[in-house]
Design brief:
heterotrimer, A mainly alpha, B alpha/beta, C mainly alpha, B: Rossmann fold, 10-stranded mixed β-sheet, 11 helices, C: mainly alpha, two-stranded antiparallel sheet
């Protein structure tokens, strides 16, 4: 008699239960996102009724008088994020180019060649190993918790840049960006630390974008007698431009929502200033600072602020994802 | 050594005045892998020189030696010399980029940049800081590549919007826009359909008037149709690895009709491919 | 004007070939060299903060590191000594709660994405939601848990903190698990199905065991991220100066300490002892996070071998 049998009813039930549960959890994860958005919106509705859109243009935050406005926070969020983005993009894209266009491995190989070790079983692997190490080190930047960056910012970055900042203020104080002295926390230290935090995001996504440029285009450029940088500037960067832009937009989304480093470094002052050295506040920092001790009334207002932050980050992130999708579609054409 | 003997019968080792590139590869390595050995090929001015041979025999590698494209492969090592204008291009003082300005290249896969047709062709002009009339140059190059009539009304459209055969002719136009002395073509028709292939072949015969051409092909009939001189490379597997070397070189008519080496005879008769 | 663009060589017997030589006086070569130098320097500069952070952690944190830190309670202002034993325990418990929620949910949703209906509209929606959550500001996860748990149960608690962290873990677990499941060679699955395995048997006996390293890597990365998060805990778990267990019972519904919040609280105070403790806690936290990261990477490396 054969030992082959049709599946038992237990096996059938287990199978059915399995399929059903994957289905259920798939739905659950969608429902969770919907629930998060709805819950924050729901909690924000009373405050929205009370303060309306004037909340967004108001400039005071006073729990005693019940007057609330988040224009300074929106200003501070955009200012710090854009500044960080500027710095982070320059460094992040540089790192990506350095890693993808073989500067490191090529350079180390040339060095090894000079001492005739390039095919040594141990030393010969050094170019790849160093490139791998550098990639991991940059990724390590992303692994350090933001609260640790905040701590480092307070005790290392602020003392380090304060003399420079105050010198700039004294010498060039007429220039709006240097309009105030740096007394401690402020926009510049916050943005610097924020730039460090988004650098790995920009570097990683840019690296993917540059790697996605087909090698035959590099060959074409070099075959046309382009120098390395002519190939990078005229062919590789333009071809990966959409992907690089997507990286920048996603990093912008990160920067907008980043909380701790800003709550610790930006100074939490309800002011609007163009000065790099002025203290400021951001939406996320406002939530972090006011939520723990908020009364029932203030919680509603904070939920409203959270909704604004949610809307901004959601839009930026969706735009970023759409751009990246577009980029990969474009590159399929080139392939 | 058999290949040395055959060379004696067709060319001499001393450079002739009509030899533009004199390529003498003693040994060529990728890392520890010996890819090519003992290959001497002169590229004659105003002629089409073809490299044929079974796949993996190193014919593309030899071609890429001629404008130092192999420099992009890490671990590439070269013993021998490649003389261009009487100067060894592997001399440490030589700038490989400058070499590639004089020895252009067309690749196996059409590889237009993702920019407009015009900018694709004008790319080399940009690299050379060309100050003259770009439109005129681009038109000349496109006419030279027999593509002008097909694209003259859509020069601002992406080069990627063209068909495969058109893309390859665009790449040829891009390569000849700066009027290099020599044009290297690495299996330029392998990704094309028969009609497009025929067009590119006709183009090669036209370009011969102005340029010196070296072409790699796996298609024997193509070599027979277009090439003045042909070199046959074969793979030597005796040392346990696959090292390519030149078996026979000579005028195409002679090589296809009366091959002197047994491997060449077998290959041309189609006993292996 | 010559038809040739280059300063080309005449066809004399010994042509001038100096234009083929390398020279930094050549504008393009000089530009290329300068740009390479700039990019190299920027890349090195980008790593300076990493080394500075690590050095400071070992210098200031290592100075006050002692065994007592791991079992004593946080000191008050002006007090000497103390530790953060309760914060370590709190972090471990809350990350544990988060993992208990996010891992089953993430893996089952990933099974749906990779197996049950990979190309369905629901799958596309789930992937979209996963991406949205990946870029979700961590503070908003806290806001959500505040509304969904704190307001509902009437107080700050470890459970609220765990829920907030689970939202941040979910996308990482789900998306890496999907990728790991897709990496399983098709022929393995076909072999199992060809032998008459039900879908569940195929998943349980072939797919999950094969993709386990990849799934675990995702889980470890998510754990590493969650352990370092501060913002979602600030107003869900709050903080506590006491142990989470009272008389042997673990009190999950009480405000709970965590390393991250301890660092935040002690970073802004003028009391030297507490600041030093913040540095020591930062060192411990970073070591914890890096260990989790390294374990995750080690697992994924073994998979490649």
């Amino acid at each position: 008699m054969s030992i082959s049998q049709p599946p038992t009813s237990g096996q059938r039930t287990a199978n059915k239960a399995f399929r059903l549960s994957t289905f259920a959890f798939a739905w659950l994860s969608v429902a969770l996102v919907v629930y998060i958005v709805c819950m924050i919106t729901w909690e924000a509705i009373p405050a929205f009724r009370e303060h309306g859109l004037g909340f967004i243009t108001g400039t005071t935050w006073d729990a005693n008088t019940g007057e609330y406005g988040i224009l300074p926070e929106i200003w501070g969020t955009l200012y710090s994020s854009l500044l960080a983005l500027l710095i982070g993009t320059v460094f992040g894209v540089s790192v990506a180019i350095f890693l993808t266009e073989g500067f490191l491995s090529g350079g180390v190989f040339a060095l090894l060649k000079a001492v005739h070790l390039q095919y040594h079983p141990l030393w010969g692997r050094l170019p790849e190993q160093l490139e791998h190490l550098l990639k991991n080190l940059v990724e390590l930047l992303a692994a350090i918790p933001s609260v640790v960056y905040g701590l480092w910012g307070i005790f290392v970055v602020i003392p380090m840049i304060r003399p420079v900042a105050n010198y700039l203020h004294e010498a060039l104080g007429w220039f709006p960006a240097f309009g105030t002295p740096l007394s401690g926390p402020g926009l510049l230290p916050a943005s610097l630390v924020l730039a460090i935090m988004i650098l790995p995001t920009i570097a990683a996504i840019s690296r993917d974008a540059l790697n996605a440029v087909p090698n035959k285009l590099r060959e074409a450029a070099y075959g046309m007698a382009a120098t390395r940088w002519e190939a990078i500037l005229y062919v590789i960067l333009p071809t990966s431009a959409t992907g690089l832009f997507g990286a920048v937009v996603l990093a912008f989304g990160r920067a907008l929502g980043e909380t701790m480093a800003l709550a610790m470094l930006v100074g939490n002052a309800n002011v609007i200033s163009v000065s790099l050295f002025s203290p400021a506040n951001t939406l996320a920092a406002l939530l972090a600072n006011n939520f723990p001790e908020a009364g029932q009334k203030e919680v509603g207002v904070l939920m409203y602020a959270a909704l604004v932050l949610l809307a901004i980050t959601l839009i930026v992130n969706i735009i970023g994802a759409a751009i990246l999708q577009r980029a990969s579609k474009n590159l399929e054409e080139v392939r | 050594m058999t290949n040395a003997e055959t060379m004696e019968s067709t060319t001499t080792n001393t450079p002739q005045h009509d030899v533009v590139i004199e390529c003498d590869i003693r040994e060529l390595y990728y890392g520890n892998f010996k890819a090519v050995r003992d290959t001497y090929v002169p590229i004659h001015k105003g002629a089409i020189t073809a490299f044929i041979g079974p796949s993996g025999c190193g014919k593309s590698t030899v071609l890429r030696c001629l404008n130092r494209m192999n420099d992009l492969v890490r671990g590439f090592r070269f013993e021998g010399r490649v003389n261009f204008l009487g100067r060894d291009i592997y001399d440490p003082a030589i700038d490989p980029v400058a070499i590639r300005r004089h020895i252009g290249m067309v690749f196996q896969q059409p590889n237009p940049f993702s920019m407009s047709i015009f900018n694709n062709v004008a790319f080399g002009l940009k690299l050379n800081r060309f100050k003259g009339n770009k439109e005129e140059r681009v038109e000349m190059a496109l006419r030279g590549a027999a593509l002008w009539d097909e694209v003259k009304d859509k020069l601002h459209k992406s080069g990627l919007s063209l068909s495969g055969g058109q893309q390859q002719r665009l790449c040829i136009a891009r390569a000849i826009a700066t009027e290099p002395e020599v044009l290297l073509m690495d299996e330029p028709c392998s990704a094309l359909d028969p009609i497009a292939t025929r067009k590119v072949e006709e183009l090669m015969l036209e370009l011969k008037e102005k340029y010196t051409i070296a072409i790699v092909t796996h298609n024997l009939q193509q070599a027979q149709r277009v090439a003045d001189k042909t070199g046959f490379l074969y793979v030597d597997t005796t040392e346990g690895s696959r090292t390519g070397y030149l078996v026979e070189f000579g005028d195409s008519d002679r090589l296809f009709e009366a091959p002197q080496e047994k491997y060449t005879q077998d290959y041309i008769r189609g006993e292996f491919s | 004007m010559s038809a040739n663009i280059h300063p080309s060589a005449p066809s004399t017997p010994t042509p001038d070939t100096r234009h083929l030589e390398k020279s930094l006086r050549n504008k393009q070569s000089l530009f290329s060299f300068a740009m390479s130098a700039v990019v190299g320097i920027l890349t090195l500069l980008a790593l300076v903060p990493l080394f500075s952070v690590v050095l400071m952690l070992f210098y200031r944190g290592g100075k006050s590191l002692s065994f007592a830190l791991f079992y004593e309670l946080p000191p008050g202002p002006m007090q000497e000594g103390g530790g953060f034993g309760n914060a370590i325990l709190g972090t471990v418990i809350m990350v544990g709660i988060a993992a208990a929620i996010a891992v089953p949910m993430g893996v089952l949703a990933a099974l749906f994405l990779a197996e049950t209906a990979p190309d369905s509209r629901l799958a596309k929606t789930v992937r979209f939601c996963g991406k949205v959550l990946t870029g979700f500001p961590s503070i908003l996860a806290g806001v959500f848990a505040y509304g969904a748990v704190v307001l509902l149960t009437g107080g700050f608690s470890a459970v609220a903190g765990g829920v907030a962290l689970s939202i941040l873990m979910l996308p990482t677990v789900m998306l890496t698990a999907e990728e790991a499941l897709r990496m399983v060679p098709r022929k393995m699955k076909e072999a199992a199905i060809g032998m008459g395995a039900t879908d569940f048997q195929c998943v349980w006996m072939v797919l999950l065991p094969t993709s386990l390293p990849g799934i675990l890597t995702g889980v470890m990365l998510a754990v590493a991220r969650a352990a370092g998060e501060t913002a979602p805990l600030l107003f869900t778990a709050l903080f506590s100066n006491y142990w989470i267990s009272a008389g042997g019972n673990v009190e999950l519904m009480q405000p709970t300490a965590s390393l991250a919040v301890l660092i935040y609280n002690f970073s802004g105070v003028p009391f030297q002892n507490q600041v030093e403790l913040a540095w020591a806690a930062a060192l411990v936290l970073v070591l914890l996070v890096l260990t989790a990261n390294l374990i995750g990477q080690a697992i994924s490396r073994r998979r490649i071998d």
